[in-house]
Design a protein that fits this description.
With about 200 residues, the chain is mainly alpha-helical. Helix content is about 50%, strand content about 10%. The protein has five helices and five strands; from the N terminus they run αααββααβββ. Helix 1 packs parallel to helix 4, helix 2 runs antiparallel to helix 4 and helix 4 crosses helix 5. The longest helix is centred in the middle third of the chain and has 22 residues. It starts with 5 loop residues before the first helix and ends in a 6-residue tail after the last strand.
Length: about 200
């Protein structure tokens, strides 16, 4: 599967931020989030409101001064609207500049759409955090979930030299329509290809 189209990423981000908001509605904001060590729920809410706005600013204006601290974010009383507006702001910024326009990213110059992709997948992970915290069901489109795995592998293969070695592993989605991944450790780092691999 190729990287999702801008419309799929935009829809995914807005759907996942709404799922997060639904999951935490009425929850104790001081409750610790077990899958985000040392973060109470209010910090996670702050992060999901703060991060897309930060990314939108980068898309519109260039290199940031630093990564914002989610502990300093102060969600307003109407936090749900704030979350949705932040996600929408990023979508609008990427559409305005053009998804293929090169901008600053954490790993070097990349297309503006890479910020939308990163924020969509980060938000989906935190929607899972919220669902686990509050005990509500969680769902995601299979293609979007598959692209999150692909993005993770792209980052691993380009950034993590510590995983050098030998051996391989295959990841096979439950959905037969989604192609899997074969991840291989080599003496120079990690490589991966899409495919089902062989059973051993």
């Amino acid at each position: 599967m190729t990287q999702p189209h801008i419309d799929q990423l935009a829809s995914g981000l807005l759907t996942q931020i709404a799922a997060f908001a639904d999951a935490v509605d009425g929850a104790d904001w001081d409750a610790p989030v077990p899958t985000c060590p040392e973060w109470p729920l209010r910090v996670l809410v702050g992060h999901l409101g703060q991060a897309p706005r930060w990314a939108a600013g980068i898309v519109r204006g260039g290199t940031p001064d630093g990564i914002p601290d989610p502990r300093e974010a102060v969600p307003p009383r109407d936090w749900r609207t704030w979350l949705l507006a932040g996600a929408s702001d990023l979508v609008e910024a990427v559409r305005a500049i053009g998804p293929g326009t090169q901008v600053w990213t954490l790993t070097g110059p990349g297309p503006a759409s890479s910020w939308l992709r990163q924020r969509t997948h980060d938000t989906s992970v935190h929607a899972v955090d919220a669902a686990l915290l509050t005990g509500v069901p969680y769902a995601i489109e299979p293609d979007l979930a598959a692209d999150a795995v692909t993005q993770c592998l792209e980052l691993l293969s380009s950034q993590v030299a510590a995983l050098r070695g030998t051996g391989s592993i295959g990841l096979r989605p439950a959905e037969q329509s989604i192609e899997g991944w074969v991840i291989t450790r080599t003496p120079t780092g990690v490589s991966w290809v899409r495919g089902r691999g062989r059973r051993t």
